[in-house]
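Q: Convert this sequence to structure tokens.
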Amino acid sequence: MSRARRKLNLRNHLSMKFKFSFIITIALFLSFTGVKTHAAEDDAPAEQTIAAAESVAVSVCLESGDITVRGWERREVHARTSSGGQLELRRTDGANTSAPATSVEVLITEAPEIKPRPGQCNYSGDLELDVPRGSIVQLKGRNGDLVVSGVAQLRAETLSGSIELRDISRAVEVTTANGDISLKHAKGRAHLRSISGQIDVSDAEPVEAADDLWAKTTSGDITLTQVRHAHVEAGTTAGSIDLTGPLAHGGFYDLKTTQGDVTMTIPADSSFFLNARVYYGGDIVTDFPIRLVSGPNKEGHEPDKNKPDKPKGNALSGGNLTGIYGRNEKPDATLNLASFSGSVQLRKKQ
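A:
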């Protein structure tokens, strides 16, 4: 074979080898790129929007993760997950699909290929919801914080996580087994319960006369500031209770703790019937001169006008203090205060 032909064969062999190596390299690159793209798509946030009525009912349940709900002016429900999975806003109202939804369930799965099922709670990840301001929202979570603002009604529960609420306009009922509860700028009925955590309420008022404020925790303090409900009930087993603000006309305040102090800081011109009880050496301290009576005036007992006023600033160690302060014999509010192991204090707001 001539030298020229051997050179040509060698050149062809090298050319084919280079082409084969190049094809293999490109194939591997495309394969790797495809896997990365698919994974990125799996991990990418999922979003969905559905037209909804102003008073739409929205429900969601998560295994773990934080839930954030915001009220907005649009007649839409918009949902966004933090990562991957399949997201569906499923109508549960059975209505014509051309009309705005009146009831929506937020369904999420871990992987895109898994179809969501009604009532499932196995998704782990954060969720954000934008809903109409008139929405009725129901949330369930096993492990995660709940943050809700600008909706009409809320019912929520979590086993472990804090609950932060703001601008609820009609009613709220929330429970956490382990976490704090904060409620600000709220209207309507409010029922708040934590087994282990503090409860903080500020700037709350009723919408209807029957709306009450109920706050209970097993272990934690309760702080109530500027609450204008006519019926306020607060209780804790291990913690103190503080209420600051004016008394509602015809109001009833029932504040009790087993281990801690009960303190009310109210305006100097307040008018009230007081029934205070302490045990195990606790003190009852008041800035108001209480006119002593023999029984609960609210139940029809006439005050004993012959009994002297209890001078302000004096402390009663142990026992009960029952009496009236303010206008005549018909006070504006009833204060029922008790501490099993602690003090009861009535302070004038400066």
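Residues 173 and 191 are 5 Å apart (CA to CA).
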